[in-house]
Amino acid sequence: MFTEAQLYSPVTKGTDGDVTVHLSDEHPGVHDPVYRARRNAIAAMALEYRPGAQVPRIDYTAEEQQVWRIVSAELARKRERYACAEVITAAGRLGLPSDHIPQLDEVTAKLLPLTGFRYAPAAGLVPLREFFGSFADRIFHSTQYIRHHSAPLYTPEPDAVHEILGHANQLASPRFAAVYETVGAAVARLETQRALKFLADVFWFSMEFGVLREHGEVRCYGAGLLSSFGEIEEFRQAELRPLDIHAMGTISYDITHYQPILYCAESVGEIEDVVGGFFETMTDETVERLTAVEPA
């Protein structure tokens, strides 16, 4: 991720080869030595992965599986109530398991026949260009760790719940998967960090925290909302603004709180036309032109 990746716990590898995940002082698992050792081991496997190799399989513990069952059941109920029809239909076709944490190969096997996307392991933060650029090859970099068992409905960082129940259910839609692919193609055209940041922010307010109007209600399609037990119930309290690429790419926001401003589409077609259309044609020059305009 990019903006949300600021919440990923840093991962370092020492000269002795030991891998350490540096949890924040506020993390629910920071004082649990068993959890910390577990996080280190999962991150180490991801760091060893090379494209084309077998994706590491995680032998999830009973506690971790229980966390998945709790969160999966709760989010499934909320998805039916708050998600848009495109996501609900896609999630139904994908059929992610609710009784166990799927291995990334299992997610890939379900996604491939639907939209051609594959999942690859990530220890934590993936560099911006690599993460978004991989969408052009229909590859999604995903963490494999799970949140701490003491707070199954809360996580201070993106985990397998977010990457799979959020993004995979979205990527199972051919229409949304096509938007992802345009993001990857755009990255190949961009040279400046400023343009990459602008792309990431537009992605944040669309594919991460996007909402739309459907049958007289505001419903969500963004992966960040789909995977957040708390925010999926609160997003309708946000100030809703129409899709505006300039505003989405330049507005200041705080990723540690529920988003007070969201950009609402009138349909999936408008997301494809406005957001997808922007990604299809954006260049460094496009961003220079847009950022030269003062925000409204």
Task: Spell out the blueprint of helices and strands.
Layout: E1 11-13, E2 19-21, H1 33-48, H2 62-82, H3 85-94, H4 104-115, E3 118-121, H5 128-133, E4 139-142, H6 160-171, H7 174-189, H8 193-208, E5 211-214, E6 217-220, H9 223-226, H10 231-234, E7 239-242, H11 245-250, E8 261-265, H12 268-281, H13 284-291
Parallel strand pairs: 3-4, 5-8, 7-8
Antiparallel strand pairs: 1-2, 5-6
Helix pairs in contact: 3-6, 7-8, 7-12
* Net shape: globular
How many extended strands? 8
Stretches where pLDDT is under 50 for at least 5 consecutive residues are 1-5
Give the spatial strand order of the biggest sheet. Answer: 6-5-8-7
The biggest beta sheet, please? 4 strands, mixed
Structure notes:
With 296 residues, the protein is α/β, with parallel strands linked by helices. It contains 13 helices and eight strands. It has helices spanning 33-48, 62-82, 85-94, 104-115, 128-133, 160-171, 174-189, 193-208, 223-226, 231-234, 245-250, 268-281, 284-291, and strands spanning 11-13, 19-21, 118-121, 139-142, 211-214, 217-220, 239-242, 261-265. Strands 6-5-8-7 form a four-stranded mixed β-sheet. A two-stranded antiparallel sheet has the order 1-2. A two-stranded parallel sheet has the order 3-4. The longest helix is centred in the N-terminal third of the chain and has 21 residues, at 62-82. The two termini are 27 Å apart.
